[in-house]
Request: fold
Amino acid sequence: MRWLFLCAVLVFLLCCFVFWDIASKGFGVVSLEFLLTSPRKGMTEGGIFPAIVGTIYVSLVTAVFVIPFGVATAIYLSEYARDTWVTRLIRAAIRNLAGVPSIIYGLFGVAIFVDGLGMGPSLLASGLTLGLLTLPYVVAAGEEALRHVPGSYREGALALGATHWQSIRTVVLPVATPGIVTGVLLGLSRAAGETAPILFTGVAFYLRYVPSSVWDEFMALPYHLFILATQHHAIHQVRPLAYGTALVLLGFVFSLNLMAFWVRKKYSVYGQQ
Amino acid sequence: MKISATRADKLATVVFQFSAWLSVVVLAGIFTLLLYNGFKAFDRIRPQEFFLGYTWNPSGYSAPHYGVLSLLGSTLLVTCGAMVIAIPLGIGTAAYLSESAPPRVYQILKPVIELFAGIPSVALGFIGITILSPVLAHVFGLSNGLIALNGAILLALMALPTIITVSEDAIRAVPKTFREASFAVGATRETTLWRVTLPAAMSGIITAVMLGFGRALGETMTVLMATGNALAFPGGFFEPVRTMTAAIAIELGETAQHTTHYYALFAVGALLFAISLLVNILSETIARRFRYSQS
Reply:
């Protein structure tokens, strides 16, 4: 059984090494100035403020799209759907959507949102593309959360004369909310770290101003890291800035993750993990 | 005027059903769109050239070539390489976590792996450039470490959390009585794991591997950054390669809309989509079949 232990140790060390490398080399770069100023001198100096704001904005657009649609789909599947071919089709679609490569969402976003609906490369187009990408995760988490609400709760509400919708709104949803929030946060953390879907749908190399509407292009942390790591004319000179960007990106993504774990832990009831 | 409760109830039903259909519409939309745009490529490229051509060189000086085999070969090379690394490591770790990890160790390992699952692919690609590339170049005496092997190692890292988490659940789900029965007839822990627990968990483990495979197959940024992106047909793990995902990511930005090249990239996307759908469906079928044959 020793080799099992060795596997685990190797995996653990690899994971830790990646975290440690980014954290140790990025730590010295990240300062208040780095977080709150724009890049200067062809991105060889200055901070990453517009990229941080862009990532927050695009995550918000994603959330505005994915929360209502994801939760509504989860409610339908868990509370309304009977086992018909329609339900099976919907479930199969969701399962398969979760396995679609992110670059394919990018192609879809270009063809539908950017060109088809004439949004052009914009926050809105990118946010919607990322929304589609996170939809299956939010639906799966939402359904799981709703399923853990005991049936007796629904029966209790119905017995008091509530309609189906009233019982969902006043009894089932409030109990399932922590699970749904966990799923949404995990989905958003994934969306915030994605690069491929926003590559052609709205992210920009460099902008002097933060976007002022959803029709503007934006800078984003993952794309900024990509640029600094591969496309910059002075790659070695900007390496510290790239490490700083990587650390901030990881910090952003992981704080969404940790928030999700925290919500799950704090509000877990009925043996939900 | 307030809507009556019954009317609100009916309205809610309609709204929810409408939302649920969205996923189907999106999947169908992706499918149709890729096929529609992909097929347009075949107005200008002969299908034989696309599916059987070894050269992908859309901006070739004399004549552009659109042979998808070099991209497909690169994708398979990198993905399969990743699986060779990730499958033993992943299953080994999963077995350790579920069978023999002391609770203290478990409480450290598990969160680290869970957190690692959330690492953005672009950050791993960055590590591939800064750390792994010089190491590989040094170890194998190459001028440049941005090669297929680099991508394979990084993709293995990306696929590991998925494989570990799903296999661990599968191994854990094997009833305790199976192991006890095996111990009772005198089998060691090692034999029990190999001959009883792992075979019993096989459907879940296969699902885990397929999910990891699917994840590695569609990964874009890591391979784009770490594998060098050479256009030639892949010559092995020590050559730079350009995968299907990387080709789309690099070339779509510099291609004018509605050109042959533009549609060819959609055709590549359609092929990638078809492969990942196939992997998905296959994993579900295998999982289901194994489950039945056991009971």
